Amino acid sequence: MSTGTEPDRTGEVPVTGTGLEAPASATPAVLRRKGSLPRWAPLGILAVTAAVMAGVVLAIGSGVGLWLFFTAVVYAGATYTASRVVEGARKAADRLVTVVVTSAFLLAMIPLVSVLYTVVSQGWERFDATFFTNSMRGVVGEGGGALHAIQGTLIITGLAAAMSIPVGVLTAIYLVEYGNNSRLARAITFFVDVMTGIPSIVAGLFAYALFALLLGPGVRFGFVGAVALTVLMIPIVVRSTEEMLKIVPNELREASFALGVPKWRTILKVVIPTTAGGIATGITLAIARVIGETAPLLVTVGLATGVNLNPFDGRMATLPVFSYYSYAVPGVPREPFLDRAWTAALVLMLIVMVLNVVARLISKFFAPKTR
């Protein structure tokens, strides 16, 4: 008896009558593929657009900024049109978004590259051994250095780190491990968020007012500046450490609890080592964030021309304040003071860059291994 379904030569029985058969006309449409632009097309379009816009800008007598703007706009439109004709709407939209994102990135890089070039080109003039081995005591014109400012910056920042790191890390541990969204935990989180956004000058005024009430008006020494930087560092350390602790899987804590390990020891031996790299990275970035603050140190530390290694007695020099005063209130002649200001800015920028590189290395080598 025939069932109406005959096997083909391969022995397979075709499925019919289920409504799943593709129409015969659909197969060629599915197999048909759009073309694609050659690899050199984006660069070719960019070169032609830049050349044409250069002629237009020269004709109207405008500058480089307008040429870059016209080139970006016309290049985006030309790329989208060519891709739409050859590759279809989806690929054209993808290319258009790529052009827009790349243009935004290059636009954001312009001020960064400009600042970097300006500081390096202007600060290289006095980037010598004298600048790192001499202070400004007794120096009126040329010569002198920023040894006192470098030492003051390192001492004040080190004191701020010594005070803010334990407070910040322990606060984050409380919020994640013990807070349980309690009223106190919510209040701490609120105040940490508020402290994150306060201007740096407010931190300086707070530290100065605090010590002025305790020791009298006009008080200025290094420890006051360290307190001001501590106020700025604590919320950053709390936030970065809190986020690192939150990504530790609860299974690790539960496994430790199942073995009878108390909570404090679980935190000390399991949770913190798991995120040590991330916590150290956040702390290093927090130090890099505050080491270049000028406003709070202007109020709390002041300026000194000689070396002072005692943060509890007398004014101290710091690189941001040294650079600011050298540029804002130069002597006669002006050029030596301006050269020292730019070199101090270059040294400060190099210190921040080194701290960021250290943070990257810590994150790379101390992060938990996934394999």
Automatic annotation (TrEMBL):
Stated family: Belongs to the binding-protein-dependent transport system permease family. CysTW subfamily.
Main location: membrane
SUPFAM superfamilies associated with the record: MetI-like
Membrane topology: Multi-pass membrane protein
Region entry Disordered, spans: 1-21
Described function: Part of the binding-protein-dependent transport system for phosphate; probably responsible for the translocation of the substrate across the membrane.
Transmembrane residue ranges: 40-60, 66-83, 95-120, 154-176, 188-215, 221-238, 270-291, 341-362
Name of this protein: Phosphate transport system permease protein PstA
Gene name for this UniProt entry: pstA
Superkingdom, natural source: Bacteria
Species, as recorded: Pseudonocardia kongjuensis
InterPro entries per the UniProt record, alphabetical: MetI-like, MetI-like_sf, Phosphate_PstA, Phosphate_transprt_permease
Keyword flag Transmembrane helix: yes
Short name of one Pfam family: BPD_transp_1
Record keywords, A-Z: Cell membrane, Membrane, Phosphate transport, Transmembrane, Transmembrane helix, Transport
Domain ABC transmembrane type-1: 150-359
Bias kind Basic and acidic residues: ranges: 1-11
Record's subcellular location: Cell membrane
